[in-house]
Amino acid sequence: MDNWSNAWCNNKWEDSRFLWKESVLQAMGFAELFCLVGWTAISFSQNAWLLDIGRFLAGYGVGILSYVVPVYIAEITPKNLRGAFTAVNQLMICCGGSVMYVIGNFTSWRTLALIGTIPCILQLLGLFLIPESPRWLAKMDKWKECETSLQRLRGANANISQEAAEIIEYTEMLKQLSDTGMIDLFQRKYAHGLIVGVGLMVLQQFGGVNAIAYYASAIFESAGVSSRTGTLAMVVIQVPMTLLGTLLTDKSGRVPLLMISATGTLLGCFLTGLSFLLQDLQLWKDSPLLALIGVLIFTGSFSLGMGGIPWVIMSEIFPINVKGLAGSLVTVVNWFGSWIISYSFNFLTKWISSAGTFFLFSVASGLTIIFVAKLVPETKGRTLEEIQASMVLFTRKS
C-alpha cells in the first residue's frame, strides 16, 4: 500500500499534550494498537469503506510514531550517540520499506497488509521491556524513578550524577513556566526552533522525495527505463546510503551532512529534469540512462541526510514544555507536505512538463542549502539542555 494518504490521518491528531501528560511509552503503545487494527482491517476488508477505515487507522498510528519514536530515542541516549541512535530509526524505516517492496513482488496486497501486523505486535511486546524516558519522569516529579531509569540506560557501573543533576535542574526551571497552549507556541522565544523544525520538514517534502518514491515506476517508464530495474536499483542504493548517514551523523555533524545531502538531491533532480528535457527535444538518445542516474543520485543523497536528520534535529530543538505541541505541529506539516506533493505531482507534470517539475524540485533543494547554512543549529555532541540554551541565545541575538 502506498503511504501518501496517511497525511489525511496524521493531521487528525491534535491533542498532543497526551504525549507528555501520559507516558511516551503509552503513546507508542496507543499508536501501535491503531496500526495493528488498521492493517488487520485492510487485510480482511471486503468493501471500500473498511479498506478506507484501515488506511485511516494505520495512518493515524504512523503519524504518532513518526514523532514519538525519535523523541524517545533522543531523550534516552547520551549526547555523543544521540544523532546516530535517532538516525537508526530512519535506517530501520528504510530497511522495512525495502523488505516490503521485495515481499510485495511475490505476495498479494492482503498478505502484505497482514505481514504489516507483525512489527506492531513485536513493538507492543517490546514496550514492556524498555525503560521510560528519564526526562519525562523528571517532568512528572518522579525523581527516584528518573535516576533508576537513567542508571539502567547508562549501565550499572556508570556515574550518572552529573547528567541526572542537569536534567533535574533544567526540569525545575521549566516548571516555573506556565502551561503552554497552541497560541503560546508562536512566542518569540520559541520562534527559532519552530522555524527550523517546520522549515526542514517543508523543504524535505518539497524536494520531491515522495513524488519519486510513490511514482518511481511511472517516472522510469516515462523516461524509457525498465520500472523493475529502476526500482530495484533504488532499493539497492537506499539502504547502504541510509546506513552511511547513520554512521556519520555523530561524526561529521548534522549541518554538514544536510548540506551534502541537499546538494546531492539538487543534482539528482536537475539531471532527471534534464533527461526529460532532452527526451522532449529529441537531442540525446541516451537520456533514459541520465534519468536513472539522476533518480539514483537523488535517492542516495536523500537517504544520506535529508531523510533522517530533520527528524533528529526536530527531536532535539524543542524544550520539553512545548515538545508535544511543537512536535505535533512539525509532524503535521511534514505529512501534509507529503500529501501536497504526492497529490499534485501528476498535475505538475502535465502543467509544466516532467522536466519542469524536476527542475522545480531542484530549486527546493537549493533553498534547503541556504536555509540550513543560515538557520539550522549544529546539535552534535551537546546535551538537550545545552541545545535549548543556545537556541535562546540565538533568539536574543536576532
Task: Describe this entry's structure for a reader.
About 80% of the residues lie in helices and about 0% in strands. The relative contact order is 0.14. It is an all-alpha fold. The protein has helices at about 5-10, 20, 25-45, 50-75, 80-105, 110-115, 115-125, 135-140, 145-155, 160-175, 190-205, 210-215, 215-225, 225-250, 255-280, 285-305, 310-315, 325-350, 355-375, 385-395. It is globular and about 70 Å long.
CATH superfamily: MFS general substrate transporter like domains
Give the number of domains: 1
CATH topology term: Growth Hormone, Chain: A
CATH architecture classification: Up-down Bundle
Strand percentage lies at under 5%
Please mark out the parts with pLDDT under 50 across 5 or more consecutive residues, or reply none: 1-21
State the secondary-structure class. mainly alpha
Task: Write down the overall mean pLDDT.
Answer: 84
**Shape designation:** globular
Q: Tally of extended strands?
A: 0
Q: Could you give the order of the helices and strands? A: HHHHHHHHHHHHHHHHHHHH
Indicate the radius of gyration in whole angstroms: 22 Å
- Roughly how many Å apart are the termini? 45 Å
Tally of helical runs? 20
Q: What oligomeric state best describes the polypeptide chains here?
A: single chain
Pfam family, one: Sugar_tr
Protein name: Sugar transporter ERD6-like 5 isoform X7
InterPro entries: MFS_dom, MFS_ERD6/Tret1-like, MFS_sugar_transport-like, MFS_trans_sf, MFS_Trehalose_Transporter, Sugar/inositol_transpt
Family: Belongs to the major facilitator superfamily. Sugar transporter (TC 2.A.1.1) family. Belongs to the major facilitator superfamily. Phosphate:H(+) symporter (TC 2.A.1.9) family.
